[in-house]
Amino acid sequence: MQGKAGHYAPVxxxxxxxxxxxxxxxxxxxxxxxQKTPGGLIFRQRWNNxxxxxxxxxxxxxxxxxxxxxxxxxxxxxGNVAPAELxxxxxxxxxxxxxxxxxxxxxxxxxxxxxxxxxxHRASSIVSIKVNPxxxxxxxxxxxxxxxxxxxxxxxxxxxxxxxxxxxxxGDRRDNYEQTEPATYNNAPILGILARLNAxxxxxxxxxxxxxPAATPVVTKPSPAPKPKTIPPTKPKTTPAPASSSxxxxxxxxxxxSWISNGKRYYRxxxxxTNKSAKTLKNLKLSISKLYGPLWGLTxxxxxxxxxxxxxxxxxxxxxxxxxxxxxxxxxxxVSAYTLA
Length: 341
Prior knowledge:
Layout: H1 9-27, H2 50-70, E1 74-76, E2 79-81, H3 83-97, H4 122-125, H5 138-146, H6 177-180, H7 184-198, E3 249-261, E4 264-275, E5 281-289, E6 295-296, E7 299-300, E8 305-306, E9 313-314, E10 319-326, E11 332-340
Antiparallel strand pairs: 1-2, 3-4, 4-10, 5-9, 5-11, 6-10, 7-8
Helix pairs in contact: 2-3, 2-7
Protein name: Endoglucanase
InterPro entries: 6-hairpin_glycosidase_sf, 6hp_glycosidase-like_sf, CBM_49, Glyco_hydro_9, Glyco_hydro_9_Asp/Glu_AS, Glyco_hydro_9_His_AS
Subcellular location: Secreted
């Protein structure tokens, strides 16, 4: 909580205790642990158990990054747990869903070689109008197609079904709605997990803005990358040099990571703004140009950027951090206005 909870700290601490109790239970290292199948999948109930699996795994993914950001381990009754182990648990659940299980069955339709073929889903189980243009009534769809033993004529690619029972058993039947029915709340959490796992081991700072000491300028040259189409003709700087400072305010930028997606190289930059004065910094406005991607940790004021919604001033000697991602070299960041009180 970074000392920002004030007199609400006891309330937030109880939330934290509950969260960590749940995380320890999922890992099997708590005083009372969640049930798992012999193959290692979290099991809560027979009807659409996968909603609990993906939701719990998403929470574990996010909490692992919170712990890493705070430099903490998870304290369980069976011992301390590093953030990487918590993320590894979430990955193990996703691996199970995608086929690393006793049945070697992927519970995401269309993924792998062995996945549910008779999903409890009306549109998936009725033949396409392009194949048979005959009108299908509501009752007709049920009477003709629901009881069909054949595979789904329309593949519901990407859908996560209810999943196996407490013993890793699964019945691929259209009328077995408890196990073969897909749901958006099965899929929604797993998207977040997959996005995080795809990002690698760099981790994400979940505690923005952070209070950090004044940064030492770091000049890092990113690998050569194709010039994005959206970049103006003006050639960007070849290295992410520290941004300009203005008297009482110091601004430092650094490249933290890069990756390639769809043939483009993306860069993630961290920018630290430090109040070097002996007074409290207020009404800060930053001018940011040559920015071609999303930014987190500041409020867009239209013609400038200001403090984030959760911060209205910066004490003497303190810093805040914001990050942005785009396909170019470092953006130009400068101070356009501020007051000291």
